[in-house]
Structures are given as C-alpha cells and as structure tokens.
Design brief:
Helices cover 61% and strands 0% of the residues. It is mostly helical. Helix 2 (75-123) packs parallel to helix 9 (274-295).
Length: 380
C-alpha cells in the first residue's frame, strides 16, 4: 500500500496560521497592562500608605503613640478574613457563571444561524435569478443578526456601524401588515439603513416574512428562529441584570474594615515587613473582587471581555460558505462584496467570497479592541 507524496512546499494561499490561543506562560507575570493591577493600583497605594503610617506611629520612638494601645486581638481579623474569603469566592463564582453562560449562548447563536442558513438553502426553491438573489439577501441579512446583537449588548442602538451596515442596508424600513420578500431594487440602495428600535428582532422578523412569502412554515425553520430569539433574550438578561448593589456594597465595606485592621495585627510581629504583607493581602482581595466586576458583563470592549467581534466574524464566514453552497454540493463564487454593494475600497473580494483575509480581520479586530480598552481605562 502506497501513500501519496506530500508536496515539497505548501502554497502560501493554503497555509494556516497555527496558534494556540489558550497557551499560558510564566512570562505572563510581567504583563502588567493586561492584568488587573492597573485597575486597583491606586487602591493598593492607599492601603500601603495606611500600613506605613501604622508602622511609623508604632515603631518610631518620637511618634509611637500607638505603642501604648492594648494588645490587639487577632480573633477579629481571623473571623472577618474567613467571612470575606467566602464572600469573595461566591462573588467570583457568580461572575464567572455569567461569563461562561454568555460564551455558551454565543456558541448556540453560531449553530442556529448556520443551521437556519442551511435550511433556507435546502427548503426554499429558487427558479429564477431574482429569486436566487433574494434568497442570498435573506442569508446575508441573517449574517447581520450577530453583529446587531453585539451592538445592542453594548448599548449601541443605531444602525450606523460599519460592520452592521453592509448586512442590513437592503432590509425594508418597516414591517408592513402584509410583508413582501426582499427585492433586488432594495438591495441596490446605498442609503443609510433605518434606525429601528430593536434591530436583532427586526432582522428575524424580516427573515420569517421571507419564509412565509415562500410558504415555508415548517417546524424546523420556525423553531430555529424562535431559538435565536430566546438566545438573544438570554444575552440581554445577562447584560441588564447586575448583581444586587447591597451585596457589592457590603462586600466592599467588609473588605475595607479588614484591610484597615490587619496592620494592627501584623506590625507587632513583623515590624516593618508588615507593609509588604499588607500590600500582598490587599492585592489578592482587591484583585479577585475587581476580576469579578470585570467579567460579570463580558460583552464590552475590555481585554477581559469575551472576543465577541471574533465570534461575529466567524459566524459571518460560516454563513458566507452556506450561502455560496449549491444544492448539488458544489461551491460557487457569489462575491458578496460586488453583488450586495459592499464598497470595494473597504473590502477585498477573494475567490472564496470572503470579504477579507482571516489574518487581516483578526489583526485589525485585536488592534481595535486594545485601543478601545485603553481609552476605557483612561476614562475610568
């Protein structure tokens, strides 16, 4: 039995950039800008200065008026420390549950959007070129659903964003009582898209209207659209339901009292070394609390948030593939960038119908996320 010989050199167009996005290295200890330290730096300075003042007023003979105080009972900080650890653990677990649930919902959105595009291609029959273009415009409208959800979770309600406009510029302005399917004339319009109240739901309503106009009301199609509505609602629930304010305020108060009291216990035993020990204790507690705050709403622009832009790009590429797949199992080039009015100056149409190369998109998205996260930290 012989095996086919591998080519000596893989063409540049066929190479893949292999990268383990989940790799971790000890060098990450030095990545201060990506860590939580910039968010709690000033609080750590305040706690360290307080510990230094306690040391000065206890150990320096000229001002050691705290030296005459009764011996400090360590039981207070021990009990409060145990309670504080339990509260911080619960706070972090609750925030991570929201983070992980958001990731699972985005995965479900990817599955259901691709599945709906596949069902549209298989069940909706097209006999003319106009019907074929109408079907492709419906699939393209579906690819804008994830972008619309992303912007709504970020409280960006207007349909004026460059990653959303190319997908919905052919969507009718309002839903009539008797919805008609999308026409080629509506796709050719380059006017600004309509400003709607809820763009994700409008997109799904238009897709449902397109299916109804073709008599496609089979349960798989309707159930998939209902699943997308449910997942969008679940993401809105995570975004609009913060943890109770009373819990967060009480946790901050307990942490404040603990960090104020701990130098009085450490200074008689550790002397001046109480300052770095207090700093370390404050770093652990404040760091865990701040991480839980950052990840409880993971749909924004911070580096700690979910890479929602990458999810939307992956969904868009999947739907582009589903849209250009023939019922005979043969790929054909739809060139969405030309057919649907995406400006060629901003997008490069490749042979596979993808608007831009994967590496260029991911590099641009990462740079944009870093810039937005930097300005967000500056505002905070």
């Amino acid at each position: 039995m012989t095996t086919a010989a591998l080519p000596e050199q893989v063409p540049v167009s066929a190479r893949h950039s292999i990268n383990n996005h989940h790799s971790e290295h000890w060098i990450d200890v030095l990545r201060i800008q990506v860590s939580i330290i910039p968010s709690i730096f000033y609080l750590l300075v305040v706690v360290s200065l307080w510990s230094a003042l306690v040391c000065i007023f206890t150990l320096v003979p000229a001002v050691n008026f705290l030296n005459g105080l009764p011996p400090y009972n360590a039981g207070y900080t021990t009990v409060v420390g145990v309670v504080l650890s339990l509260l911080l653990g619960f706070r972090l677990n609750t925030a991570y549950d929201r983070f992980w649930e958001g990731r699972k919902i985005w995965s479900s959105i990817h599955f259901h959007t691709f599945n709906l595009a596949r069902l549209i291609r298989v069940t909706v029959k097209t006999s003319t070129e106009l019907e074929e273009e109408t079907q492709q415009s419906a699939i393209k409208l579906l690819s804008g659903f994830s972008h619309a959800v992303k912007h709504r979770l970020r409280e960006e309600y207007h349909a004026v964003y460059p990653d959303l406009v190319p997908h919905i510029d052919h969507m009718p302005k309002v839903i009539r009582k008797s919805p008609s399917m999308l026409t080629a004339s509506s796709k050719s319009s380059h006017n600004h898209p309509p400003i709607t109240k809820n763009i994700p739901l409008d997109i799904l309503t238009h897709i449902q209207a397109y299916l109804n106009s073709h008599g496609q009301t089979a349960p798989p199609l309707c159930n998939t659209i209902s699943a997308l509505v449910e997942q969008f609602t679940q993401l809105e629930r995570i975004e609009s339901t913060p943890l109770p304010a009373a819990y967060s305020i009480t946790l901050r108060q307990v942490m404040f009292l603990y960090l104020i009291a701990i130098p009085f216990q450490l200074v008689p035993v550790l002397k001046w070394f109480a300052i770095p020990v207090t700093f370390f204790a404050a770093f652990v507690m404040m760091g865990v609390f701040e991480i839980s705050v950052k990840i409880e709403n993971p749909f924004g622009y911070y580096l700690h948030d979910l890479p929602v832009d990458s999810y939307c790009t992956a969904i868009q590429r999947s739907l582009e593939h589903a849209g250009r797949f023939e019922r005979t199992g043969v790929d054909r080039d739809l060139k969405w960038g030309n057919t649907y009015g995406i400006h060629e100056s901003n997008f490069r149409v490749d042979h596979g119908g993808v608007a831009n190369s994967v590496a260029h998109i991911e590099k641009k998205e990462f740079a944009n996320r870093k810039r937005r996260a930097f300005f967000s930290r500056m505002r905070d």
